[in-house]
Amino acid sequence: MILVTGGAGFIGANFVLDWLALNDEPVINLDKLTYAGNTESLQSLAQDARHTLVQGDIGDRVLVSSLLARHQPRAVVNFAAESHVDRSIHGPGEFIQTNIVGTFNLLESVRGYWQGLSEAPKEVFRFLHVSTDEVYGSLAKDDPAFTESNHLEPNSPYSASKAASDHLVRAWHHTYGLPVLTTNCSNNYGPYHFPEKLIPLMIVNALAGKLLPVYGDGLQIRDWLYVKDHCSAIRRVLEAGRLGETYNVGGWNEKANLEIVHTVCHLLDELRPRADGKPYQDQITSVTDRPGHDRRYAIDARKLERELGWKPLETFESGIRKTVQWYLDNPDWVAHVQSGAYRQWVQKQYHSGG
Ligand code: NAD
Ligand code: TYD
Fold first, then answer.
1. What pTM does this model have?
2. Which residue of 1, 11, 201, 233 pairs with 26 in a disulfide if CB–CB is 3.0 to 4.6 A?
3. Ligand 2: does its nearest atom lie under 6 Å from the Cβ of 214?
4. Which region holds residue 305: left if phi is over 0, alpha if psi is between -120 and 50, else beta?
């Protein structure tokens, strides 16, 4: 079996669902169930004996050590993190706590477990750390895409905390021999994405007749990957990645934010036209820019393709259409995640000059 952390969040839930759709190897899913963790995303596994959800913190060494001792996983895949840049600007403390201190404690628990294994399971054990392209910093317009040899130059409290965790993972390999793998992926989108991030926020706001807030000039560039392609990359790295290596994951889909928002609007015009017949793009509004806003991210994923033969299956056009359709088909999931805590966040970020 494998232990997944943060498996009730956006990417983790997609990973767990895909994993169990593809094979029968059981998953222990350790998730703190913060505002970003949603058991509803895992509802289809509620009666499935192959999946066990444990509510807890990656930083809780007693809990993690006992889970490891009891279930003897052959791998740990670490998705657990605070993940939203804007929240990290309002309150960096939780990011330091989970992404840095939490990863440190998780590494120590895993090291203790791994060192106590007998030779055969010790040989095959893997710790896969899921990270982001944001650790590399920001690119100018004509800079080449990030490769694995770029320096880490994080600019936000979120990306700095992820970069710190990447460093810890690397050090636990070099110092203690822990068999680690790290993936640095570009921006994901797809089903179960919490509507605080750009694409799901635009879809749910558009449908609710609300404004579509574009930060600054809207010409910042992100490199978008459909979440299921990220999950397939993680499975491939887990299966065949070289120990201690970092693999960039991306699909060569650089888009300016305004282009993304217009694409979402056009798809909604087609799939769920406004009652008044007007285009959704009438709802677009420019708002104050994010402090320290990174201008451009772009991922060079050729190492993963060359060494492990991974390629994404979705184009941006096919993936974004599936995503918009998923939100149209799942209004209950959207309604339930827009709880009181969600409303407080929207008030703080978009209505208080923040
Ligand atoms: P998310 O915020 O949707 O989910 C994070 C999950 O971790 C939640 O279920 C939350 O409850 C859980 N969690 C938070 N703190 C925890 C703790 N201390 N102990 C246990 N569980 C905890 O995030 P996501 O978008 O699914 O991202 C998952 C991982 O992938 C993160 O490490 C993120 O840095 C990385 N990543 C995300 C993207 C992206 O575009 N979303 C891109 C590249 C990498
Ligand atoms: P986001 O989804 O928060 O991901 P990240 O900051 O980790 O890349 O934001 C994606 C881009 O969209 C980023 O440049 C900020 C911008 N953005 C907006 O313009 N408006 C919004 O309301 C949000 C949430 C993001």
1. 0.98
2. 1
3. yes
4. alpha
